[in-house]
Design brief:
Layout lengths: L8 E5 L4 E4 L30 E4 L12 E9 L11 E7 L3 E3 L17 E3 L2 E5 L2 E10 L12 E8 L4 E2 L1 E6 L12 E6 L3 E8 L3 E3 L4 E8 L6 E9 L3 E11 L4 E10 L3 E15 L2 E4 H8 L6 E11 L25 E8 L5 E7 L5 E7 L4 E5 L10 E6 L2 E7 L11 E2 L2 E8 L3 E2 L12
Parallel strand pairs: 1-11, 12-13, 15-22
Antiparallel strand pairs: 1-8, 2-3, 4-5, 4-9, 6-7, 9-10, 14-16, 16-19, 17-20, 18-19, 20-21, 20-22, 23-26, 23-30, 24-25, 24-27, 27-28, 29-30, 30-31
């Protein structure tokens, strides 16, 4: 039987379940406990019970160093200037193995979305009616403060005579598991979302005036709703866009694309940010806004900067209003090659020599850097290179190229580590193609 001197109210605090009845005279905040920690009890003078109880520990698969929580409850004034009876209590509790909202109608959208699944804990306190401050401190198995999860505090919690006050506290972790504590404090573990996939369509190297689409897929391990934001953080304005299209996925997943048309050559940076969402006062807001409103601002997002290199438009202009140029006469290779420009795609600078088929004539000799180009012409009586040329790299023959026009040769074709950039033939004239645009860089 309980013997109550003052009136008692019920105050529940969310953490792992543990129950005990015993004599609680005063506020034992220090001293040895049964598990080697400081004594975990809070009480009011005049309560006498018989002792019984149990403790349960459930190991959670969280990427955080949290083994449990130190939950403290302190009596505070409900109104300025009023006297406050001294009361403090602290208990250590472990994770419960439960998840919230867990299908509970009272907990859905309060604050977590219906599809969310946050690891949680729960603790019930018996206290006098009044106002309290509840502090939740995540700790490791060794009793040290957690390096992965932040402490949280609920202030001005009112407890009324004969009823239970239930509150939820969110503890933010950097990819691990937060905790909750005190006054039936439901602790929801929140982990930031992450970007699973980013894609350019067709490429991050694009001519001006051509449409470009960037897409991102974001996931949230807690199955929270996700909002994706695209921001043009560097570069001139686009002719069109950025226009955002949101393609919903399943719970905790979202796909989003941004469509744009660059107005001219330049270097751009598009920043994509994924933020998990929760409910606050009946509105869906970012988890960061919820944490800030709770008084524990912490980041909860995934972000990345995406570069976009824009070259001249395909018709050679530097803006989308430039008229296309009149194309120069060109044709396929005919009558042997007279002029070639090649690009070296080797990893290092190299000494390169180009000789005719029998090695009678040296058409080019020089050092070429990776990505560099070099040009040479035919020297026979018709100004051609003969039927074949041999390219030597650092004193060794590397590749042979047919220059008789009996085999295909044209701009963009590759022979070993060499790419045809430009060229011409005796009867066909210039090869039909334009030089690749020079892509701007940061």
């Amino acid at each position: 039987m309980y013997k109550l001197a003052p009136r008692i109210s019920l105050l529940a605090g969310a953490l792992l379940l543990a129950a005990a009845c015993g004599r609680m005279d005063g506020i034992p905040l220090s001293g040895p406990g049964t598990d080697g920690r400081s004594a975990e009890a809070g009480a009011m003078e005049g309560i006498t019970t018989e002792t019984s109880g149990f403790a349960l520990h459930v190991e959670m698969p969280l990427d955080a160093d949290v083994d449990g929580f130190d939950v403290s409850v302190r009596r505070v004034a409900c109104h300025p200037g009023e006297p406050v009876p001294h009361f403090e209590a602290m208990e250590h509790v472990g994770l419960s193995g439960d998840f919230v909202p867990g299908g509970s109608a009272e907990l859905i959208n309060n604050p977590f979305d219906v599809d969310s699944a946050h690891p949680a804990a729960d603790r019930f306190f018996l206290v006098e009616a009044g106002c309290y401050e509840v502090a939740v401190n995540p700790v490791t198995a060794q009793g040290w403060a957690s390096a992965d999860c932040m402490a949280a505090t609920a202030r001005g919690v009112a407890v009324h005579d004969g009823s239970t006050t239930e509150i939820t506290v969110v503890v933010q972790c950097s990819g691990g598991a937060p905790t909750a504590g005190g006054l039936d404090v439901i602790v929801g573990v929140n982990r930031p979302p992450h970007l699973k996939h980013v894609e350019y369509r067709p490429s991050k190297l694009t001519p001006a005036c051509e449409p470009v689409t960037l897409c991102a897929c974001a996931l949230d391990d807690d199955l929270d709703p996700i909002d994706i934001e695209w921001v043009h953080t560097l570069g001139d304005d686009f002719t069109t866009g950025p226009d955002v299209a949101l393609l919903e996925g399943g719970p905790g997943e979202v796909n989003s694309c941004v469509h744009l048309v660059p107005a001219g050559p330049g270097y751009h940076v598009i920043t994509v940010t994924a933020m998990d969402m929760a409910w606050l006062n009946g509105q869906l807001v970012s988890m960061e806004a919820l944490l800030a409103a709770q008084g524990d601002p912490q980041p909860s997002r995934a972000t990345i900067d995406l570069p976009l290199h824009v070259g001249p438009s395909r018709h050679g202009g530097y803006d989308c209003d430039s008229p296309p140029p009149v194309p120069e006469p060109c044709d396929e290779c005919d009558g042997k090659v007279t002029d070639l420009e090649l690009r070296w795609h080797g990893r290092n600078a190299a000494q390169i020599e180009v000789l005719t088929k029998r090695g009678d004539d040296l058409l080019f000799s020089g050092t070429v850097a990776p990505g560099g180009t070099f040009r040479f012409v035919g020297v026979d009586r018709n100004g051609t290179m003969g039927t074949e040329i041999a390219i030597w790299v650092n004193g060794r023959e590397d590749v042979a190229i047919h220059t008789s026009c009996s085999r295909p040769i044209g701009i963009g074709m590759e022979f070993g580590d060499f790419e045809v950039v430009d060229g011409a033939s005796r009867r066909g004239g210039p090869f039909c193609a334009s030089r690749p645009p020079a892509w701007p860089s940061a």
